[in-house]
Amino acid sequence: MKNKSMTAEKETGSPYKAPSGQAHKKTFCRICEAHCGLRVDFDAEGAITSLRPDRDHPVSQGYVCAKGTRFLEVANHPERLMHPLVRQPDGTYQQVSWKEALDYFKDRIRPILKTSGPHAIAMYLGTPAIHNILGGLAYI
Question: What is the pLDDT of residue 129?
Fold first, then answer.
């Protein structure tokens, strides 16, 4: 089953319907700061079927790295985490709501900050998070 988060409706709005019954839309890759142009193809239900270079993109002109064109494999991977998980005492993981996950984190991070200060914790940001406004907060 295809990842429901990777559908035309949710991810990219109403796509242009191609004569073949499929749909396509122009977008860009968000994996790195180059933001290469991509064309996204959808099936009749609106699920993404392929990512390919956009030769009409004014900057990348059809050049895209393998990460961008293969990202659909990551998005649709059967082991992709779609919900927060909390490790149980026996080592298994239990799915929880986002509120429960954030409360779990908050309840554990505050005592560390209180006793050891802000430099006692670390945050990792990688591409593409490092290239957006939230990534800039790491340097404040």
Answer: 59
Long-range own/partner contacts, residues 82-86 (CB < 8 A, 24 or more apart): 82/3, 82/5
pLDDT of amino acid 139: 55
Q: Which residues contact 52 (CB under 8 A, 6 or more apart)?
A: 38, 39, 41, 64, 69
Domain span including residue 119: 85-139
63 contacts 53 by C-beta, under 8 angstroms: yes
Q: Does residue 39 lie within any of the structural domains?
A: yes
What pLDDT shows up at residue 76?
87
Please give the Cα distance from 46 to 9 (Å, whole number): 7
Both 53 and 25 in a single domain? Answer: yes
Rounded CA separation 75/97 (Å): 21
The pTM assigned to this predicted structure is 0.58
Q: Which residues of the chain have a pLDDT value below 50? A: 1-13, 15, 17-19
Distance CA 125, CA 5 (A): 22
